Amino acid sequence: ANLDIDADGAITIDSGTGLSLDAGAASNFSTSSGALTIDGNGGVNIIGNAAEIDITTTGGVDINSGAFTLDGSSVSIDGTDSTNLTMTANAASTKTMIIAASNSNGSNVSNIDIDADGQILIDAGNSLSLDAGAASNITTSSGALTIDGAGGINIEGNAAEIDITTTGGVDINS
């Protein structure tokens, strides 16, 4: 049997204990104007089971929380305009933003790949350290590579050769 409830005014349902709305087919709960508020004193659980949970809007999506955890078998965050990932702390101790990739499979590794069709700018208010566990390179496909140290430049070969190779001249000024 069907149940159809229509009203020209508000419909208020109050329950002193739980309220359960169950349906045997696809369903909707919508407003023709104004916001739809879901407020759970102990939290809000959205369960998609093995299906997609789809949040679609032509407006913004604003998520505010204390601690925020996002876990997925794979995660893709894409923007079509200027985009940022920012940590803004106001604490009496040093805070660190960590971007890490790891693969617990001992036969494989995880890589981090950063690409841009424009500049990649890295600015540090203090020191900058780039460390690698294998042979590495810094290469330009066009233009000069400039290394400028306000307090000098240290090149250490340890117990190995320091090799400077060019088809042009080598200019050392002091």
Structure description:
With 174 residues, the protein is low in regular secondary structure. It contains no helices and no strands.
The parts where pLDDT drops under 50 for at least 5 residues are: none
Overall residue-averaged pLDDT value = 92
- Proportion in helices: under 10%
Q: Name the overall outline.
A: elongated
Note the beta-strand portion.
under 5%
Rounded to the nearest angstrom, the distance between the terminal CA atoms is: 95 Å
Count of DSSP strands: 0
Structural class label: little secondary structure
Provide a count of the helices: 0
Could you tell me the radius of gyration in angstroms? Answer: 29 Å
Question: Descriptors for this entry?
Answer:
elongated; single chain; 174 residues; little secondary structure; 0% helix
SSE diagram, text form:
Blueprint (H helix, E strand, L loop, with lengths): L174
Task: Describe the structure concisely for a colleague.
It contains no helices and no strands. 0% of the residues lie in helices and 0% in strands.
